[in-house]
Design a protein that fits this description.
This protein is an alpha+beta fold. It has a single domain (about 5-130), classed as Gcn5-related N-acetyltransferase (GNAT) (Aminopeptidase, 3-Layer(aba) Sandwich). About 30% of the residues lie in helices and about 35% in strands. An eight-stranded mixed sheet has the order 1-2-3-4-5-6-8-7, sandwiched between helices. β4 and β5 form a beta hairpin. α4 packs across α5 (about 140-150). The longest helix is centred in the N-terminal third of the chain and has 17 residues, at about 50-65. It is globular and about 40 Å long. InterPro entries: Acyl_CoA_acyltransferase, GNAT_dom, N-acetyltransferase. It comes from Agreia bicolorata. This is Acetyltransferase.
């Protein structure tokens, strides 16, 4: 089943396509400074279409294998954000990890909340997952609000969890139980 959700009159959340590499590279380039405090340091190559083509291919392979769900927020062919479900594990765990970002020109409009809520519903109703997890920097108040609105609950703090913006930083670990 292919994922598609209309978030607003002109913004959709859809499955990443093989032809999206250039639009993804443009979105990352446009949002380089906006995302820098929240992501790992990126080499120059990351912002190229060639590199994003490799990333897109890998993410679509994970999708085909059932271990990932790579999505984009788009206005036509213009990408204004990403939402990813990764590390989908079946068996007794039935869990996956959520990650997302929104274009600087589209923040503060509720798009991240709408996208995460759509992903939660799809994960529960279509994928049959039991649990979603997401980690967030302690000082990322906007992202913490997105997760809280989507029903994610704190399960603890992981000290020096990920290297973000060149520093090993603590993260709040959260989860949303979809089925009890």
């Amino acid at each position: 089943m292919t994922f598609f959700a209309a978030l607003t009159d002109n913004i959709t959340l859809r499955l990443l396509r093989s032809g999206d590499a250039d639009a993804v590279a443009q979105a990352y380039t446009r949002n380089r400074q906006h995302l820098a405090p929240w992501e790992p340091e990126r080499a120059e190559e990351f912002f190229t279409t060639a590199h994003q083509s490799t990333v897109v291919t890998t993410q679509l392979e994970h999708y085909e294998a059932g271990t990932g769900l790579p999505l984009v927020l788009s206005v036509g062919e213009h990408i204004v954000g990403r939402v990813n479900l990764s590390n989908i594990v079946r068996g007794p765990f039935q869990s996956a990890s959520v990650g997302y970002w929104i274009d600087a020109s589209h923040t503060g409009r509720g798009l991240a909340s709408a996208a995460v809520e759509a992903l939660v519903a799809y994960s529960r109703d279509e994928l049959g997952l039991h649990r979603l997890e997401a980690s967030v920097l302690l000082h990322n108040a906007a992202s913490r609000r997105v997760l809280e609105r989507a029903g994610f609950q704190s399960i603890g703090v992981a000290p020096t969890y990920l290297q973000i913006a060149g520093l090993w930083q603590d993260h709040l670990l959260t989860q949303r139980i979809l089925y009890r």
